[in-house]
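Sequence in, structure out.
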Amino acid sequence: MKTSKLPDWTAAGPKGNVPDWAWYDSGRQAFWVRIKPLEIVQMSEGSLRRFLRASGYSTLVTDGHNISAVEKAMVAIMQQQSVAYAGPLAGHQIGQMELYGKTFLVTESPRFIEAKKGNCDAWDDLITGLFGDQVPYVVGWLKIALQALRAGPPFRPGQMLALAGPAGCGKSLFQNLVTDLLGGRVAKPYRYMTGATPFNSELFNAEHLMIEDEAATTDIRTRRQFGANIKNLLVNETQSYHAKGRNALTLSCCWRLTCSLNAEPENLMVLPPMDESLLDKITLLKCDRPSCLPETDAQRKAFRDALTEQMPAFVHWLQAWKIPKKLKDARYGITAYQHPELIESLASLSPEEKMLQLCDGHGIATDEPWEGTADELERWLRGKCDSWQVERLFTFNTACGVYLGRLLSKHPQRIEKRTVEGRNNWKICPADKKAH
């Protein structure tokens, strides 16, 4: 990371070199100027001219020259201080950087809280009351997230932290505190992660990506796209930056993702199906309302102020806390965890389970096992069930076969597969009998 010095405002004239405190943003066709050691701002051409004049560059065109010193400096900035991207960049400190053969300008840094030994009883009350015996998982997640951000690139991958509990139990409060801990910057990624928009430029401005009580969808394709983007955004360090009206860029950043939702089964549908590829990438915690949460507005403000005041002490405690050996993970630092009750609720809503429920409800294997291909099962269900039920299930050509494959691993006592002459034959046994 290159650190640029401030201009010498007292200089009588230019030193003959290119001002290293100014850059040209080729994407926006605008200039950026460092006005303080930790502040770089976007400027118009006219404002930059005034800065150059204040640095001693003349606006006069002298004999034998076609342009003034100010104009020469601006041309030199455009030629030698041009950057492909300028703006905040999650996980990076302010300054110029070289990445993937291009020059980038990070215009601000995350605001980390300095650790200081002291009392953090309010934090203890909140986290213990909110998470109960799940505390090691959330504390470990916070510890690894802070370590990754403070260490800088190359960044360590992370997991999504999903919080499910009743309304008003403190989930949103905790998410806002996570924003403060992770540098004070937050962005909303849900629309991009579910395919509602192709543009994701705002996500690169913040370390904390926060999903908060989003409207759940039962569309399995949307939920699976959400799951695919969890893997992409949290595991891959290189990301495609796509702003409206601009060419895509490859950038490096560090994100941590939290999601809060109510614990009712229909609200859990905001989460992707929990298949094997996602189990190590999502920590799903069940939340309760802590007894320390106040009731009145004045009390809530006082409690929030206490949490803010104690944040340096909590960071100090967090840095000193050791992750139990049995919870360590070589890739993510802390092993993922999913609360059994929530996983059970989520599994009951999966399309394969709904298909099995339809089979049972319409007596496909009441007394004797049913045998046939996936296509034959789909045709049977389409003939027995309401059209809206099957249309929601079979949203792609091979859906029935895919669901049978998942049921085989989840319910081997009921589902059996045999391959005959290159064709998969399936057996569905009655609920009270086993496959054989």
